[in-house]
Specification:
The chain is of the alpha/beta class. It has a single domain, classed as P-loop containing nucleotide triphosphate hydrolases (Rossmann fold). It has 13 helices and 7 strands.
């Protein structure tokens, strides 16, 4: 793994293409890519946004008196821990993966023993331990960076940037009609009001931090990525010191191309045609209400032609 910790955290409101973008990066020759959502939050994480976003997606907070083992268990990391410990209960149970969570914890504790115990170092060592313990992982041939993805984590941008001096945040935006149509397919979907509030907060925060930290916070539309993943993501790579790659053109799992991006997210087929068709699944009333609730952002992101 790279000696320094060059970190890229993908952020996106739910069903906005974060998982899809994550899978496009999966086989990049210079990037260690976390297997699932890197849900780094802890029960101590959170603030005034607790009523909008769950703790598992927030930047973590740790008990000052905790041990390394307690730090490890505090990180929620639901998708990876369930897959490793009780694979029969995981939606990724049919996804090949050799990772022993107890071994990963031991590696993490050994790394933490070298000090110092800072939040940034806890996060760094959590990722390092994952890739060391993941036995069948196809490691990048020219490792330079590590990538994670956690929904809505753009709201914690200042903490991420402060804790990890070489971190970048890549925030992904999707038109609100397709996004809400997909979130309605979940077993317990958010209400339109709740969903659009979260969508607006994420996009507003992303644009604010992009203006404040233009070299470290980046915003891309999933519509542009779907149209030309290699070109759009390749250009992003070059802005953060990585090379473009032909592998960016195809979503994959551990180097194996995916026919559909499932079960990582609700965007199964990442194409412009499927995305536009999804937007059309809503009723006229839903489309109108969405347009009214997020009107400023529709024009800012060039989404005027999606809501009709």
């Amino acid at each position: 793994m790279q000696d320094n910790f060059k970190f890229i955290m993908i952020s996106a409101m739910y069903e906005n293409g974060g998982n899809t973008t994550h899978r496009f990066f999966d086989n990049h020759e210079q990037v260690f890519v976390y297997p699932f959502e890197s849900q780094l939050g802890t029960k101590l994480a959170g603030d005034y946004l607790d009523g909008v976003f769950p703790k598992k997606y927030r930047w973590p907070a740790f008990d000052l008196s905790a041990s390394a083992a307690e730090d490890y268990h505090a990180i929620i990391d639901e998708e990876c821990k369930v897959r490793a410990r009780t694979p029969q209960s995981s939606k990724f149970r049919d996804t090949p993966m050799e990772l022993d969570d107890e071994e990963r914890k031991k590696i993490f504790i050994a790394l933490m023993a070298k000090g110092p115990r800072t939040r940034g170092k806890i996060i760094e060592n959590f990722f390092r331990a994952t890739f060391e313990a993941w036995k069948d992982y196809r490691k990048p041939s020219e490792p330079l960076a590590t990538m994670g993805y956690s929904p809505i984590i753009i709201v914690d941008a200042p903490k991420i940037l402060a804790d990890l001096p070489e971190a970048h945040i890549l925030h992904i935006v999707r038109n609100p009609w397709s996004a809400y149509a997909d979130t309605k397919k979940r077993a317990v979907p958010l209400s339109l009001e709740h969903y659009m509030l979260g969508w607006s907060i994420c996009q507003s925060t992303a644009l604010y931090w992009k203006k404040r930290e233009p070299k470290r916070v980046h915003v891309l539309r999933i519509e542009d990525i779907m149209k030309d993943p290699q070109g759009v993501l390749g250009a992003f790579c070059q802005t953060v010191g990585l090379k473009s790659s032909a592998n960016l053109a195809t979503p994959s799992w551990n180097g194996t191309p995916l026919k559909t991006v499932y079960p990582w997210g609700t965007i199964r087929t990442p194409t412009p045609e499927a995305n536009r068709k999804t937007a059309q699944e809503l009723t006229d009333q839903e489309r109108q209400e969405i347009a009214e609730r997020v009107a400023p952002w529709i024009k800012l992101f060039g989404y005027e032609d999606f809501g009709g």
